Every structure is written in structure tokens, then in C-alpha cells.
Amino acid sequence: ITYLDTIAQLKGDVFVNGNIKKPEIVGQIVAQNIINQFLQLSINNLTVDFNKTVASINAPQVKVGDSSMGITSLVSTDFSKELLIKSLNIKSKYVSLDTFLMYKDSPIVKNLPLNINDGKFYSEKLLANIYGTPLFMSAVSADFNIKNNIATFKNVASELYNGKLAGNLKFNLKDEQFD
User: What is the model's pTM?
Assistant: First the structure.
């Protein structure tokens, strides 16, 4: 199928019942390939299992721009107030944070607030541009959540410049300021 500049090869059986913003969904969708050139996004071997009010997502091969990762998550199918990700686990060989920040102003995030209750992140290598200065880190791990456009990172650990980095931080997704 092609929808919103996205090409996807999908198969599965899904049964939907109820209100469009708060449906009960049962079934499974498997996507061999999903490609959106505008978003610089490709996903291979995606599986989504629906169990009434929760979708379990397994995406072992996700590429966003120059970043590649595997993602598993539990997502609420109640879209009436927000996009609620109950849990999110991201494992990556390489991540560029600038790639992800380009999505913070996307219409889907502006029209439907994003909340992540329990996130876990690990990347072998990570590039962050901090106030215009590139910062390369390795073995980066963190627990995180997003609520009201504030990303909170706890238990951040990384190797950096032949040393170790550890700490916590908050990042405002709207004005890109650290706390």
C-alpha cells in the first residue's frame, strides 16, 4: 500500500470494534518493508500484535536517517487524548540525536501529544550536538520518559573521552533547553 508518501508491504488479520479514537483491536499485522523517503524512515520485519487496548510492537530493523536500531514497545490503542507508549526499548549500533530532533515538530506530534511512561535506551555509539558542538559517546544507556513535552533521562551512563559519564537530565522538546 501507499499512504502519506509511505510504501508498505503488509499482511495480517485485524478486527476493530468501537470508537475510532478508542477502539478495541484484536489480531496481528506483519510488514516486511515500510519506506518513507521524506521521513528518511525504513522498517523491516515489523510485527504488531493487538490485544484489545494494547498493541505490542516488535521492529528489529529500523533505520531513521543515518541511525539504525531495534525497537520493542507496548502502545495504548486509546488515541482520544494522546499517543501513549507504555513501554519502549531501543537498542542501537549508532544514533544521531539530530535525526530524532527533526521529528519533534512533525504534525503527528503536534496534533497528538506523545507520552512515554517507561523507556530504556542503549546505543553502542551516539552523536549529540550540544550547543553546536559535536559530542561523540559510546556505550550509552539511559532510562527515560516523556510527559508534557519534557524528556526526562535517568541513570544516564556513557563512555566519553577515555572516561565515564553518569547523570540525569531533562530536555524540553519545545524550546530545546536542558535542565
Answer: 0.87
